[in-house]
Design goal:
Elements: E1 2-3, H1 14-21, H2 34-47, E2 51-55, H3 58-69, E3 75-79, H4 83-86, H5 91-94, E4 99-103, E5 105-106, E6 109-110, H6 112-118, E7 130-136, H7 149-161, E8 166-169, H8 173-180, H9 184-188, E9 193-197, E10 208-212, H10 214-226, H11 235-247, H12 252-269, E11 283-287, H13 295-304, E12 307-308, E13 310-313, E14 316-320, H14 327-345, H15 347-350
The chain binds pyridoxal-5'-phosphate (PLP).
């Protein structure tokens, strides 16, 4: 099976397995664990923040960040298709008790006029104050789009003028940084707080980091416990996270290259499927609308042909490249897709 459903399917590397075996077994929630502390220090350094806290998942890193920003009842302004709104089960309001306003955007970048219209430093008689401005890069629903540094800077400027903090959901921040040709710090510097995952394209089995000021991270540690994210002997999984940050960031451009190759091949099968220019990182969103056959049917069919992809909307499939996808796997996926398109891509159009 060629698994293109997500970069979360990446297996730990040999170096990770070795590091896991020799990790410490301190109780992170009692006296602390040296390996977890090393990972947190490394995460803080990579993002240019003062401190970091290790949590089990990207969803929890976002939730804990919302709770730690702590303006319960305030409004969070964010682009309307952000992962926190579309795929994290409403934790933003159900658990963090924050109101939110999804703003229109282009390729994941919120419209700056809409932000200007809605941002306000404090509550007024008939409007909530803005508790937080939230950005996501790379942007999942926008097909791995990278928010330009100029956009991050403009959002940050507007937020600062209104005394509002900025958070970046950087689940794939290292992909964003690689595509921009800068370090993750250059992306993260446009936020007060940032979170990222080591469990996605970086190949660690588990874990995300929330990064910010010392005071913010202390608050985040409290909220991590509140939502059940305190871990005990987390040294072995943190050890894999350290290898992820030390060894696996450099190779991400390779995933971007294979994604672009995949997109070019799909475009050659039928130009309606994808605009290859839209692929900036390792996520490839594909439209099957022209076939008249829905994405769920396509993914079931491709599975029969040995290729796993995710249906992510009625007419859209998501292909994700990662460490286990090289040119041979891309060629196999393309040939399976071409065969299926020959069979169904045109047949259904005639109906
Ligand atoms: C942008 C973004 N944020 C957060 C998450 C949540 O991560 P997890 O699935 O580890 O909870 C994801 C997962 O794909 C994501 O793409």
């Amino acid at each position: 099976m060629i698994d293109l459903r997500s970069d979360t399917v990446t297996k730990p590397t040999e170096a990770m397995l070795d590091a896991m075996q020799s990790a410490t077994f301190g109780d992170d929630s009692r006296d602390g664990d040296a390996t977890v502390q090393k990972l947190e220090a490394l995460a803080a350094r990579k993002t240019g923040k003062d401190a970091a806290v290790y949590v089990p998942s990207g969803t929890m890193s976002n939730l804990v960040s919302l709770l730690a920003h702590g303006d319960r009842g305030g409004e969070v302004l964010l682009e309307a298709t952000s992962h926190i709104l579309t795929a994290e089960l409403g934790g933003i309001s159900n658990i963090a008790a924050m109101f939110y306003r999804g703003l229109p955007g282009r390729r994941g970048a919120m419209d700056l006029d809409a932000l200007r219209d809605h941002i306000r430093p404090r509550i007024t008689r008939n409007r909530l104050g803005t508790a937080l401005v939230w950005m996501e890069t790379t942007h999942n629903a926008a097909g791995g789009a990278v928010l330009p540094l100029t956009h991050l800077a403009e959002v940050q400027k507007l937020a600062r003028e209104n005394e509002v903090p900025v958070h970046i959901d950087g689940a794939r921040i290292f992909n964003a940084a690689a595509a921009l040709g800068v370090g993750a710090k250059e992306v993260a510097k446009h936020s007060d707080t940032v979170c990222f995952c080591v469990s996605k394209g970086l190949s660690a089995p588990i874990g995300s980091l929330v990064c910010g000021s010392l005071e913010f991270i202390e608050r985040a540690r409290g909220f991590r416990r509140m939502v059940g994210g305190n871990m005990r002997q987390a040294g072995p999984i943190a050890a894999a996270g350290i290898v992820a940050l030390e060894n696996m960031v450099e190779r991400l451009p390779e995933d971007h290259r294979t994604a672009k190759r995949l997109a070019a091949g799909l475009h050659a099968i039928d130009a309606s499927i994808i605009d290859p220019a839209a692929v900036e990182t390792n996520l490839v969103r594909v439209s099957v609308r022209a076939s008249g056959r829905q994405a769920a049917e396509w993914s079931a069919d491709l599975k029969q042909r040995g290729v796993l992809v995710s249906p992510c909307a009625t007419w859209e499939l998501r292909f994700v490249t990662h460490r286990h996808i090289g040119d041979a796997e891309v060629d196999h996926a393309l040939s399976a897709f071409a065969d299926a398109w020959k069979q169904f891509g045109t047949a259904d159009k005639r109906r």
